[in-house]
Amino acid sequence: MKQRTPAFRIFRRLLVVVGAFLCSAVGHAQGSGYERTFPQSKAAIEKALTGMPTSGRLPVLDGFAMSADRPLERFQRGYYQSKFQVSAAPGGGSVVRVSVQVTAWYADPVAAKSGYQLLTSNGRLETDVLDQLTDQLAAASPAPARPSPPATAVAKPAAAPIASPPPASTDATISAPVPRLPEVRGNYSSSLAQGLEQQKSAPQTGAQKLEDKDGGPLQTEANSLEEILKNQARPKNLVAVKKSGTPVVASASLTAKTLFLASAHDEFEMLDFTRDWVHVRISGLSRGWIWRNNLEMPDSVPENDVAPTAAAVPTAAETFHVSREETAPFPGDWAPLRGMRVKIVSVENNDEQAKDSGPALRLEFAKSVLDKDYAELAQKQQELAGIVVIFDSVDGGMIAATFATLQQWKAGTLSDAALWHQCFFDPPETFSSPSSSGGE
Question: 239-248, 249-258, 430-439: which has the minimum mean pLDDT?
Fold first, then answer.
């Protein structure tokens, strides 16, 4: 066997070291695909994350998740759950790593093999969450203070540079979310106000006194900006979302398809409204409906636009009472509760001769039952999978909710409207109002 020289042995060791370095570099690149470094502290990052939605329902799975062995079109009711890891960066700031878990109901041709399964996120959700965090941190960071001009810089106000007024917007279509107008101090910017104060306090020459008869260049600019702000008045037909996770749906119905979940303070142009729903423009020709109680309405819209009647309107507690409670298998064919044991609450009208109580009171009373019985369900979650409210009357119906949905609702991650969109209604028209353009 040929004797290997010391130089060859050293060269071979170098190749091993370089190869190990390259492998570790590649592994770091793959492992940091959903990491992002921020200049803020770890405490500031964690505070910002508490105000962001971390879970919700996906309108579609295509484009968000992947399935290696089963066709994606057989999956339904996709949900996502975000998990964050925040650590201090070596060079200062923080490193945020986000991972998203996607689950969906798989409808197998063999019914016994159907069930919820875990899918692989394609990274779009993680990137979107990190972008939202970046925007939220940028909005929370205070704008750097502008240094005051030296005293000598305003000794001659006529020579101060005049900024051109910003052009007025020419876009006639309002898309959502609508950006808010920048806040101003008084009717013009703080730097301009400071310049005017310095102009008034600075000694004036004879030529400047003649010029001040017309207001001076800075006063002219202030008047011009005031006129622009008047022309850029806030539109009076905007509605604002009260709570993150509010669903925007395709039609005015509790069983309508969810288009997406809006965030708190998102603003939309209001096209029309009923007692229960608001028709909004999403963008361009895209339209949607939002449950009215989840919106801050314009001042021009009265809180109660229904004509008053002489008789007092009864409340849900005055209209219904719980007649019976029992534990039994789910009395329906809804997949999330099919074959499972649930708590069944039967409800009757206090006055059997009364007219149809209407869907609004039924939903209000059902919500009170779900709220009251959630504590018992949480203690028996191994035994009970959900709650069913049955209205035992001619115009009655059934509402069913799973424990997972109620848990999110009680935790505050689901609004009331989002709760109803994840419940089961049988028949749906029983909980629909004819005056709501398709139901509640």
Answer: 430-439
